[in-house]
Amino acid sequence: xxxxxxxxxxxxxxxxxxxxxxxxxxxxxxxxxxxxxxxxxxxxxxxxxxxxxxxxxxxxxxxxxxxxxxxxxxxxxxxxxxxxxxxxxxxxxxxxxxxxxxxxxxxxxxxxxxxxxxxxxxxxxxxxxxxxxxxxxxxxxxxxxxxxxxxxxxxxx
Length: 157
Fold this sequence. Notes:
Elements: E1 13-15, E2 22-24, H1 26-37, H2 50-78, H3 84-107, H4 120-129, H5 132-137
Antiparallel strand pairs: 1-2
Helix pairs in contact: 2-3, 2-4
């Protein structure tokens, strides 16, 4: 895979026309775009500990939110047969991830995950969170209640 320039099937990819850099995998793309083009730290920080907290949340998004929400969506909405144990596992994991985010936002004085402004990590969570209600609605006993998670909402961005 070293030096690979074509993305694997179904991967997000970019080619930077200014540099000729080709990247695939969303976190690599985000980090590249931030390091290369966010010189004024509009969506990022270059201070400690904020710089490392941004990495922490981006990695949590990639390892927690993306996979669990994706599997919840698949098993709840698209899988041809209903497998209740899989549906409930990924519903529970989605609730866990949302709980972590909600707790962090509830403890944040600014309402953002890192620092006192909207950063790329806040934005990285947003689109997946917009999919929660439709994913949960198809499983009647999912016990999903958006009001249980007050801090996490589109209005917070």
